[in-house]
Amino acid sequence: MSLTAKHIIAAVATAPLPSGVAVIRLSGSGCKALADTLCPSFTKVKTRVMHYAPIKDEAGNVIDEGLWVWFKGPNSFTGEDVVEFHGHGGRAVVQAALEAFYKAGAKPAEPGEYTRRAFINGKMDLTQAEGLADLIEAKTEQQRQQALRQMNGELGTTFETWRTELMHLVAHAEAAIDFPDEELDVLQEGNFAAKVDDLLETFKKAQQNQSGQRLREGFEVAIIGKPNAGKSTLTNLLTGKETAIVSPIAGTTRDVVESHLDIAGYPVILADTAGLRLTDDVIEAEGVNRAGKRAKQADYVILLVDAADWPTLPPEATEFMAGKHGLVVVTKIDETKADVQNFVNINGQDYPSLAADLTQPETLDTILAELTKALDNLVAEASEAAHLNRQRHRDAVASAMTHLLQAKSLFDQTAAGGHFSADMLAQDLREAAQSIGQVTGRTDVEDVLDLVFSTFCIGK
Ligand SMILES: Nc1nc2c(ncn2[C@@H]2O[C@H](COP(=O)(O)OP(=O)(O)OP(=O)(O)O)[C@@H](O)[C@H]2O)c(=O)[nH]1
Ligand SMILES: [Mg+2]
Fold this sequence. Notes:
Helix content: 40-55%
Bound molecules: guanosine-5'-triphosphate, magnesium ion
CATH class of the largest domain: Alpha Beta
Order of helices and strands: EEHEEEHEHHHHHHHEHEEHEHEEEHHHH
């Protein structure tokens, strides 16, 4: 679609049919006049006022009755003139009403076209459009909050601040070009090198902060331990259903069993895994291998140890939990007494620990409380840095960092007595600014548009 398409579009903006009410939305210059042909009494109605009236086809037959409202651009979602018809959400009703709008000159909207027009008309930047898409997709409370912040411009503002800082550096480097005899002095005056370093540090922190992406896609939690430790029992307790097979036979679970949970508003991808042991069984060995991989990629690891084995830990635990946040649960405390302190040290790192009888439903509350605390901490730890939550954001920051490092090396070479080129410096900085600008769509818009809007569905 070209950036300047101005035809009138029409589509259903509400949930799949049938539904109690369905909203058909029209957008584009002239859409009010088009609507008037299907509802003559709408002609004199003021903007933003609900009007109850029938919608009629070409021949004047009533299709449905409902509420009409129009928004005069630019004070509308898309920034263009917008008309909404709120009718009954029956399939045949909506089909007939849409047909009538199409016959009168509207065209079906493409996926994401309303939001795309809103972006083009400056109603929102690309991060806000993504925030809107995430808000519609949000399944948990924390996802909703993050999406809403982004839709209100929080992430966009961060990127715009970075781009502005970079553009200032560009301006500075360009100023140096104009004073070829004093290039370096001009740059030193502006504390140039320190500013480049600061930005690099900020970008690095943003890259390291995974919590934005995790909030969007889910925190990975892996349950590991020796066979029969109670991993599948805990999985079923957390999911509230018979997700995995539980049996007294060691080696029951041989694959990674994944479940999606909402824990205190955080989206969690829980992985039950095969019990850790050396085995000649090829299938089980592959299961153990996968358990290790899962544990290593997880954000949080729950290690289960049978009270009868306590305090001996499975040897793999040290490797799989290294550098990670996690929890140690000593299970089957109803069968064997065990001395379990509040913390257990694994290879120099302290993990909270508790003893539990997983067959008791009350145990769920204790474990959920620990998990909630851990997830709160994971997010709080990262709250200072920007919450990049899509690969697109990360790629932009990575690219900006590459250009900044190049700029920095030019500077360093000069400090070491090499030849200095303010031209090249300005170019690198400009490219860094461009990478950052792509995220909000403030520069080089076209090539990122398709990527952003392809995830939208029709009517949004
Ligand atoms: N008494 C008691 N039994 C438990 C407890 N936790 C698990 N069990 C029992 O221990 C056996 C093994 O439990 P599972 O949940 O299948 O163990 P697992 O760690 O998934 O085992 P694998 O899949 O073989 O690695 C089952 O018979 C459970 O009912 C507990 O805290 N107390
Ligand atoms: Mg199991």
